[in-house]
Hints:
Shape: elongated
CATH topology: Immunoglobulin-like
Oligomer: single chain
Amino acid sequence: MNLTNRRRTCLLLALAGAALLTGCATLQQIAALRDVDFSLAGTSGGTLAGVPIASSRSLDDLGPLDVARVAGALARGELPLEMTLLVRASNPADNVQARLVALDWTLFLDDRKTVSGALDQEYVLPPGEPVSVPLQVRLDLVEFFGRQLDQVAGLALAVAGAGEPTRVRLEATPSIQTPLGPIRYPDPIRIEHEVGGSGRP
Length: 201
């Protein structure tokens, strides 16, 4: 049994008892969540030390003042990267409506674990209509990747959709609303994509 089928089986087994208590409507909602596909749709609004970088492919694309701001932040021992990471939730057209009520996540860059967060806004996932779920991300690249300007700036540009390809991965745990209240996936799901360069989503 592959990972996807095993995850779906665990989800149904964990929730089958609850579904029997509330009837077919709950079972339909649980089945709906297990079939929703989550993927990385891209990023928006990327800034590095407060400098917009979404349209830059290298440090050479930044103006002298912007380079000075980035270098000044690095000299202070910090290099904050802020962005909105867009997760696409696709509910199959032949499914029933699903309702995503929470998403706990951890971000990995180049297979290195960085920051974690939680989405607490509710999203309705209609059948056949992909929904973009924005996750606000902020991390200090120096904390995780050191103080080499070219390396960390290149990583930031890749995550923003430019620069050299970089592997981005989320390990996320969705929750769906049911008549019994929110019910979480029993195990995290992996959402990953190569960003930057030709791998830009």
